[in-house]
């Protein structure tokens, strides 16, 4: 997760997208990040069930929606979703986890 955060911070796709010369690079960065989010969600699904459910809804992807996080991770639907290299999403973004600020 930390590596994904570092990647998006360095890549700055929101800046690249505004410039026609770097717009395709921004789209490529965002596709890669969606791939990472999908895989992190799948790997954490058994113990972050609510978060995974929100990601399933948010992505709106047919293959990902078939994964049952209460089943064995070796289930065919899980394996099929994990193996997906290219996929379409119908994003409906929402905050999955709110940031918790440390208190002193």
Secondary structure layout plus pairing:
Blueprint: H1 2-11, H2 13-16, H3 23-44, H4 49-59, H5 62-65, H6 76-83
What does this structure look like?
- This protein has one domain (2-83).
- The chain is built from six helices and no strands.
- By secondary structure, the protein is mostly helical.
- Helix 1 (2-11) packs antiparallel against helix 3 (23-44) and helix 3 runs antiparallel to helix 4 (49-59).
Short description:
The protein is an all-alpha fold. The protein has helices spanning 2-11, 13-16, 23-44, 49-59, 62-65, 76-83. The chain has one domain.
List the defining traits of the structure above.
single chain, 104 residues, mainly alpha, 6 helices, 0% strand
């Amino acid at each position: 997760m930390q590596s994904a955060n570092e990647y998006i911070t360095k890549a700055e796709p929101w800046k690249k997208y505004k410039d026609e010369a770097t717009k395709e690079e921004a789209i490529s960065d965002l596709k890669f990040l969606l791939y990472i989010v999908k895989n992190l969600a799948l790997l954490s699904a058994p113990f972050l069930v609510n978060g995974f459910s929100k990601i399933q809804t948010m992505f709106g992807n047919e293959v990902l929606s078939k994964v049952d996080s209460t089943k064995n991770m070796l289930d065919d639907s899980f394996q099929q979703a994990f193996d997906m290299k290219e996929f379409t999403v119908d994003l409906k973004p929402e905050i999955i986890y709110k940031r918790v600020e440390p208190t002193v």
